[in-house]
Amino acid sequence: MAVNTMTKLTLGPIAYHWSADARRDFYARIADEAPVDEVYLGEVICSKRAPFHEADLPATIERLERAGKRVILSTLAEVMLKRERKATEDIAEMVSPEIEVNNAAGLYARGKRPHRIGPFMNAYNDATIAWMAGQGATHVCLPAEMPAPAIAAAAQAAVALGLGVEVQVYGRASLAVSARCYHARAHGRTKDNCQFVCEEDPDGMPLRTRDDRPILRVNGIQTLSESYVDLLPEVARLIADGVTHLRLMPQAVDMVAVAQVFRDVLDGRVPTGEADARLATLSGDAGLSNGFYHGTAGYRRIAAAAPA
Amino acid sequence: MSLAELICPAGTPAALRTAVDAGADAVYCGFQDATNARNFPGLNFTPDELAEAVTYAHARGTKVLLALNTYPPAGKVDLWRHAADTGARLGVDAFIVADMGVADYIARMYPGIRLHLSVQAAASSPEAIRYYCENFGVKRVVLPRILTIPEIRQIRREIPCEIETFIFGNHGLMVEGRCSLTNYLTGQSTNMDGVCSPASDVEYVRDADGSMSSQLAGFTIDRFGPEEKAGYPTICKGRYAAPHRPEGYYAFEEPISLNLSRLLPELIEAGVHAFKIEGRQRSKSYVRGVVRAFRAAVDDIKAGREANIADLIALTEGQKQTQGAFETKKWR
Predict the structure, then answer these.
(1) How far, in Å, CA of A102 to CA of A141, rounded?
(2) What is the mean pLDDT of residues B22-32?
(3) Which is nearest to A301 in space by CA: A195, A283, B117, A182?
(4) Whether B119 and B231 share a structural domain
(5) Which HAMAP family match (chain B) (predicted)?
(6) Per-residue pLDDT averaged across A224-246, rounded?
(7) Where a domain ends, among B218, B234, B250?
(8) How confident is the model at residue B2 (pLDDT cuts 50, 70, 90)?
(9) Model confidence at A149: pLDDT above 90
(10) Max alpha carbon distance in chain B (Å)?
(11) Cα(A176)–Cα(B327) distance, rounded to whole angstroms?
(12) Residue B122 lies in a domain
């Protein structure tokens, strides 16, 4: 691939309940070593977790910005309780950093002030993106389940409106959210007395079918794919189709090395095939998938077409 | 005072007539394509069938609500716009929508037709609901099945539109409109295609020990002993093993139906305007039984009489029932 300096590599918000210490160490390394351009921070999944790490936010933002990263604060995907409504409003009132909205409550609070549209906002099409752009959206992250032709059509519309267009290219796909906490349920508890048992599973709690096949991951109220999405082989086509930002979702693997693999491909330093083999090694036991992109079952891995 | 309208499912023209005759205040239905969230084989309406249905329903004082409640992927938006155009031409009383682009189109093109916000939009806070009311003129919100009655009462005070809640039928666990589980296993999307755990991907496999596996796209969603009745493999109602639950358990929810008949008086008092019965995929006789029973119960309550809910309980006899989130937040 030709050297590409326009495309931005981003790091999505941490979906899991990593401890404050783990987060500090993680972002320190990201700031110092990871070749990503933009970093999304903030608790997106469970409002009960936020008090554990929100006190560190200002220092983390400062650290990342000092390292030359653009920081964006993401809002909760589900907003129902008083504290969730308050948390969403508080972020919506911020002048900086930029914010990414994941729930219509956030859109309401933000009004026409500039904001990014998160992957939970269901921006599936040109009409919706045009509406959102008219309301102040500057950037849109498309839903993880969108197939290539829809991504291309959405990206074309968004770029024409001057918006950034982001697609998740690495990590587990968010498949569902619920009002119920499935982590608590697995341990015979409820959401209100969960005792933060989700902290035990920094890469999600594995569910296996009754004939012992890995199928899904539980992360509190969220259900994720068992496989990691890997669109490294599709990066060239994504960029050709107008995608401007490529999102890596933090998993419990060496994310600095993962970012380096993508950067190497973007810079044309390493051939995609070789880079993808390295990515598979870095991803450990997790299977890699790109089915959604290819319009088939999300868990599937579709081999790249042989070069012409 | 709540109007306590009864909103009933119409998966087919025959089911629509049945629901109208059984006392529905309104019926909801969709076209035979991806524009609605029950895009199942053998269900839904052609434009000609919808025209006849509107005539039949309106002649009997029943409203027709058209579900356009899926999310068009970029490049296919015209299918949803044409469906809206057709619905408007045929005189439907309201559109049930989720996608902002679809809502914006209808609000601009057909400002005289009511917009209802589908449960698929997942608006679960006053702010989210107000967003759709202020921007698209939404007149009614169908609330997600995740709120308690005190929470519904509180929302009612803070929004400028009517509230519709589900009272009976399938008990969805995931936030609607935010679920890609089916697409992950089958390649068909609930949001974009209107498909959920499709029958075409279902297989029941008898294992050597006599047990039965119910599978979706080759994944075992549950396994049943020789004496157990094998259930339909809906992903969020399956049994799986987790590190702390090696024996297998209902990781999300048991196969259970929602039945809020006991809570009807409280829901009316909380200010719920309309009650929705789920089940466009259900038979005519099911629709007749459920609609008649709820019609009688709602009429009794509105007249200040004690409702006989025994008939409603009997409708799910032998099945597990829940009042879900409506009764207590311990459900969460």
Answers:
(1) 10
(2) 98
(3) A283
(4) no
(5) UbiU (MF_02232)
(6) 98
(7) B250
(8) low
(9) yes
(10) 62
(11) 23
(12) yes
With an 8 Å Cβ cutoff, are B191 and A122 in contact? Answer: yes
pLDDT of residue B318: 59
Average pLDDT over residues B184-197: 97
| Chain B: residue whose CA lies nearest to A146 | B73
Question: What's the total number of domains in chain B?
Answer: 2
Residue A222, both tokens: 């969220």
Q: B89 by DSSP, 3-state: which?
A: helix
**What is the C-alpha to C-alpha distance for residues B52 and B31, in angstroms, rounded to an integer?**
13
Cβ–Cβ < 8 Å for A138, A115: yes
| Chain B: closest CA distance from residue A221 (Å) | 9
> Is the domain of B237 the same as that of B123?
no
Average pLDDT over residues A213-237: 98
- Domain range for B202: 188-250
- Is B44 or B173 the better-scoring residue by pLDDT? B44
Q: Check CB contact of B277 with chain A, cutoff 8 Å.
A: no
Does residue B51 belong to any structural domain of this protein? Answer: yes
Q: What is the CATH code of the structural domain delimited by A8-289?
A: 3.20.20.70
B120 and B192 belong to one structural domain: no
> Does any CB of chain B come closer than 8 Å to the CB of residue A223?
yes
Chain A interface, mutation test: which of B78, B105, B223, B332, most A Cβ atoms within 10 Å?
Answer: B332
* B-contacting residues in A 51-110 (Cβ below 8 Å): 77-80, 84-85, 88-89, 103-105, 107-109
For residue B106, the domain's CATH number is 3.20.20.60
pLDDT attached to residue A4: 60
Chain B contact for A160 (CB, 8 A cutoff): no
- Give the residue, A307 or A114, on which the prediction is more confident: A114
Name residues 63-102 of chain B within 8 A of A (Cβ).
Answer: 71-77, 98-102
SS3 state of residue B169: strand
Contacts of A174 in chain B (CB under 8 A): 180
Cβ-based contacts under 8 A for chains A and B? 234
- Considering CB atoms only, which of B77, B185, B236 is closest to A126? B77
From B225, B250, B275, give the residue that closes a domain: B250
Q: For residue B41, say if its preceding peptide bond is cis, omega within 30 degrees of 0.
A: no
In a domain, B87, yes or no: yes
B198 shares its domain with B319: no
Q: Is 70 exceeded by the pLDDT of residue B317? A: no
Examine residue B179 and state whether it is found in any structural domain, yes or no: no
